Amino acid sequence: MIIDFHTHSHASDGALAPGDLLAEAVAAGVQQFALTDHDTVAGYRALREAGAALHGNMQLLAGTELSTLWSGVGIHVVGLGMDIDHPVLHAGLERLDAARRERAGLIAERLEKLGMPGALAGAQAEAGVSQIGRPHFAAWMVAQGHVEDANRAFDKYLGAGKIGDVETCWPPLAEATGWIVAAGGIAVLAHPLKYRMTRTKLKRCLQDFAAAGGSAMEVYSGRQTEEQTRDLCKLAVAMGLLASVGSDFHAHWDHGPRLGFDVSRLPGDVELLTAERLEGRAA
Ligand code: AMP
Ligand code: MN
Ligand code: MN
Ligand code: MN
Fold first, then answer.
1. Does domain 93-158 have CATH number 1.10.150.650?
2. d(CA 26, CA 268)
3. pLDDT range class, residue 53, cuts 50, 70, 90
4. What's the rounded Cα separation, in Å, for the pair 80 and 72?
5. Which residue has the higher pLDDT, 21 or 283?
6. Which of 24, 114, 131, 168 is 20 to 30 Å from 30 at the Cα level?
């Protein structure tokens, strides 16, 4: 079975419209799919309103990827299968929307001090109606000739630990996890290897996440080696967490991940998160 529970459309920082992304997922043979835009469910809402005709037999789940803070580290939590109209989730997403705007102002101030005037208006223009984020600043910096490409923008200015990496606006991990759970969803700790934490710290993070109601972690999240996947599966089993898979697809990049992951590639002892499990929970 082919699953993809972590993808982005242009409702956040992905390149494709939600409907086009869905069509590509169908074409890639994905059978269970979630659109998980950063801090918004706008793209998923549009898909749901367009109806099942768009995706035929493919199961479409509600999704989002929340920006949170734990022990000074920006941690992403994927929410799946929740009621997108639940008031607790709604309030949480409003808070994150405000946090993104506030953060954009802070990033812009810092870039302006480095001799890049007009950063806020520029990034806002890049974002349009999408949820504004660092990739929009990167795109503007490239367009202005401040950097050669988006990678360089992250390496020099926006990536982890750089001047434009402002994480303080995000809600605590436990709180945002609680919003997903309150709305009847499953909370998944996204891409555990991207935080570059020591294994001891990562385990502490996963423990705190589980204590807050988190029940799964990604064992595959786009480009990673088979060895990393096996390692994450072992970690999920050891931590008593369900295993989730998603490509974290944003666009057709040369070396980027493809949509979908064949879960028969996972070791037999993991407890896999599937649409059936999510539905069984909701029933
Ligand atoms: P934000 O959600 O605004 O904090 O921006 C984070 C997003 O930037 C991630 O979800 C990625 O899509 C993108 N990103 C992170 N690191 C890089 C990088 N080194 N190069 C390009 N894009 C990146
Ligand atoms: Mn992104
Ligand atoms: Mn992420
Ligand atoms: Mn993502």
1. yes
2. 26
3. low
4. 25
5. 21
6. 131
- What angle, 0 to 180 degrees and rounded to 10, lies between the N-to-C axes of helices 199-211 and 226-239? 50
Q: What is the pLDDT of residue 283?
A: 45
Could you tell me the residue ranges of all domains in the chain?
2-86+172-278, 93-158
Exposure on the CB side of residue 261, measured as CA atoms within 13 A: 28
Q: State the DSSP H helix or E strand holding residue 3, giving kind and residue range, or none if neither.
A: strand 2-4
71: alpha, beta or left? (left if phi > 0; alpha if psi -120 to 50): left
End-to-end CA distance of the chain: 23
Helix, strand or coil, per DSSP, at residue 112: helix
pLDDT for residue 127: 96
Q: DSSP for 140-208?
A: HHHHHTSSSSHHHHIIIIISTTSTT---TTSPBHHHHHHHHHHTT-EEEE--GGGG---HHHHHHHHHH
pTM: 0.96
Ligand (nearest to CA of 249)? 4
Cα→Cα distances 157→11, 106, 263, Å: 24, 13, 37
Ligand 1: atom nearest CA of 132 is 3
Does 51 have pLDDT greater than 90?
A: no
Q: What is the pLDDT of residue 254?
A: 84
Atom 14, ligand 1: which residue's CA is nearest?
135
Ligand 1 atom at minimum distance from 133 CA? 3
Instruction: Give the residues surrounding ligand 1 with Cβ less than 6 Å away.
Output: 13, 38, 67, 133-135, 150-151, 154, 159, 250
Q: Does the pLDDT value for residue 233 go beyond 90? A: yes
